[in-house]
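hi! just following up on the protien thing from before. the input was this:
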Amino acid sequence: MGLMWALALGLLSACGPGVQGWMGPQPQLEAVTTTFESVDGTTVRLQVSGSQFTHDCAVYWKGRALPTTFVSATELTAVLSATTDIWSDEDADEITVRSPEGALSSARPLPHPRLEILSISPKAIQAKPEGPVRLTVTGRNFVIGTQASFESSTYLTTVRSTDTLEVELPASALQSPGTPSLQLSTPWPLCGGDMGPCGHILSGPHFLWVDNPGQCQGVACNQPPASTCLDATTVQQYVSPGTCAPSTTTCSYSPQRVTCTGGQQCSGGRCVTPPPTCNASNCNGCCNGTTCVAVSSQSNGRCGSGGNSCEACGSSEPVCQAGACVNLCQGVTCDQPPASTCLDATTVQQYVSPGTCAPSTGTCSYSPQTVACASESVCQAGACVNLCQGVTCDQPPASTCLDATTVRQYVSPGTCAPSTGACGYSPQTVGCASGQTCVNGGCATNSPPWRQAHPATVPSVRRGYAMVYDSARQRVVLFGGFDVQHNQPLNDTWEWDGTNWEQKAPAAAPRSRAYHALAYDSTRQRVVLFGGSRGSDLLDDTWEWDGTDWVQKSPSNPPYARERHALAYDSARQRVVLFGGQRFGVSGGDTWEWDGTNWVQIFPATAPSARLGHALAYDSARQRVVLFGGSEMKSVSEYVVLNDTWEWDGTNWVQEAPAAAPGVRLSHALAYDSARQRIVLFGGGGKGSSWDDTWEWDGTNWEQKAPAAAPGARMSHALAYDSARQRVVLFGGRERKSGTVFVDVNDTWEWAPQGSSD
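and the predicted 3d structure came back as:
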């Protein structure tokens, strides 16, 4: 009977096989906690708590059964093996408990393992250490790539295990006493579940104690007083190292007495063997009266054959060594004179070599002599040098406008002053030709003004959006950007018909983003979008707009995720060309092409340097993709702004050498005016400033234009050429109002260089 009841109870268990047609009680999932099992973050242990669990219950993640261990009716454990990308997946948060019959608990998010600091060793550190300090941190859920934040700076860590890591703090971070805190952050941004917006998770702060260094820090106390003789057989020595007194930083040394043994006597603060007399059989030293002194000593003679008599050394061999008279200059070359020095700005003090050796001491002396530098040289570090050597003087001051039609230029190359190495440039004035005006230190051709449009509806203020012209539908298409007013990226789609902006309502759309890029594939009549950023989350997806909906593509080998890159469509070769961009503070210099199905990386023999914030446009008349400017990232805090011009012919990049060019800049915009066969450039910025200038590229040279009116100086905007209306269209961006004050705007401007009208 007991066995029958046991079988019956097994059939009615919560997750076990129930009576046919009966599901049994539903397992209840209440909470999930996680811990990392491996330092690479790919193996995670789940601790699941709830009720009505049995041995047959299984934990599921996104519909996939995980290896599950039954602990009790209220606890299960499971192991999840997956890539670290799951933490950046907004949909990777479904954890459920199921029975074999299908009884299913409610879903819970997959929480990221909690990053926690338990202890730090050493806990206390003296301020102003002599070198870096290595901390050992114990805690939970450490994985490779975990970063440490200390005093507003970030440091890499060395992860030894999931509960131990090390971080090295430079001495410069420990200069002041106090109780600074150390925090750890996850190596990847986290999204989904109850995380809210994507971001890195921080551990709680853990405080260190940085104490004032003692006044004796750095005092070695290793120079005790010299030993002395207390009597004929007793030496007074001092123990080293001694003890430092913090109040005075003075050292004290404990005395100790040493008694000479073995017939030795105290001489000069040490125990020595008394020298034998001159007629002793073991005398091999030099004669000093009637006493034979140590071999290393010097005296005026040697022991003679007559016993106690001494024989004097002569002038040619004036020194006695090892019982013989010697000349200490034997083998001495005297070919290492003192280093030359500067007596003044134009006079060098040299020393004649070889010098003269003193036979009694073996030391060399060198006669000084003075040398005057030539007229084009100065004395530096004991040598006459020409500071103009290697100086090209090819960087004259920037040209300026003396008035509306006169430019002040400077002759290059200039003249170098040998005494300072500084370059001087002669000024010259140049008058602008008829129909030109001096703008920013150069003569610019007068042109029709930019005209501001005032549509009834407009997109919201933004920067870092992308815009392109759809020639088949005769619409300018705008997507996304960053809304600074609400501190969030956008994913709205707008179209400009020459009169009004219209917001579209596609059934599907790319995720919100900024600093992405668009290009129009005129062969397939599709607008192509790639990449961009959502805060710290970089994207590598490809989408196409057909005028009604966005469609995501699934290429097998897309370029790596990036932002601030550029696209242009090469209509002759029917390829969208991508170059450069930024990924986690590093600029890229790679070239890719999109054929409508796949991305293919190209490896040209020559290419522009790695950069971000540059611009591309396709010159259909010359069948070349043109690149201008951008910024090359040397490090997170160091970058170089550029103004070089390159062209892509489908096989190689070729750098152009125009006679004139726009100044260095990034976050500017280009558009190709197919009616006039010119590439138009407007604005851009860098190093805390921005520009409102208009330039045109004809395939050989850049020419600055001087429109009577223009949009305000700005960056992070876009241009598109409306070929049906023969207008260059500009929208929004980040406008500089004054000095370093920037404001995001949503104004619309058009430029018709031919003076055409609607």
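Residues 451-455+463-751 form a domain with the Neuraminidase fold (CATH 2.120.10.80).
The chain has one helix and 70 strands.
cheers
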